[in-house]
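INTERNAL AUDIT FORM
Audit reference: QA-55
Scope: verify that the stored structure record matches its stored sequence.
Auditor: D.O.
Record contents follow.
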Amino acid sequence: MDDIFSHFGDIFGGQHPFESFFGGGQQAGQGRRYVNKGTNLRIKVKLTLQEIANGVEKKIKVNKLIACKECSGTGAEKGSSFNTCKTCQGTGQVRRVTNTILGQMQTTSTCPTCNGEGQTIINRCKKCNGSGVEKGEELITFNIPPGVADGMQLSLSGKGNAAEHGGIPGDLIIVIEEIEDAQLQRDGENLLYELFLNMADATLGCSVEIPTIDGKAKIKIDPGTQSGKVVRLKGKGLPPVNGYQKGDLLVHINIWTPQTLTQEEKNLMEKLKASPNFKPNPGKRDKGFFDRMRDSFR
């Protein structure tokens, strides 16, 4: 809000508008000096699911504007000093009074001589030509908390471009880019895995290994498991940002049907086909079937 109302300075003589109405604010000749602000930088950081699950420390080299090493960011040669700006008398602002049909109107603007700083350099630094900044790079170390998502942004204050004449540096904006995992799919804080079983394992039951964030895990497949069943591994998903309770790992079971068979295998399947145990018996309709199908194709 302060930045917004500062634009009314041209109308209200450099004062906050409310201060003009209520008699407060700065006295004439006591304008605020302009402080340079460095620009922000934006970079992308790629993270794996494992890094997202556990959090990670990253070190990156950033090419940016840094404070001039020769003059320490002041813009003046060593041993040189500054003069008070003669145009604005050190206030950083110049005022002009004009006569209108409504009376005299006072306008305030940034001093064109010192750019609002209130002082001028006697001898400029030759390396940075008086700007106080130069091109360079900085090794920045930062921590990314667990549970971040693709597109999320983190801000590192003061790690952006340096400002001219020793002003306030900008910020470094870090944009999270999630690397797609080859086996696990993310759904918010939950993870999804598609498990394919052959007909024999689904019929007789078995134990299978599945991938998780923490490595491999064994799950038991009950005899007679149907395609479309979802096995939930509680707490094997991702944590929320700044939270504690992890999501789940949802294992979606698919029964794989062979496409080529030997003659012996065909004869065996013909025998099994004739068995009453191999005739479909859906029984009561599974109300959650279409929900699971929708989730599996999401």
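Auditor finding: record pair retrieved intact. Residues 35 and 164 are 9 Å apart (CA to CA).
Action required: none
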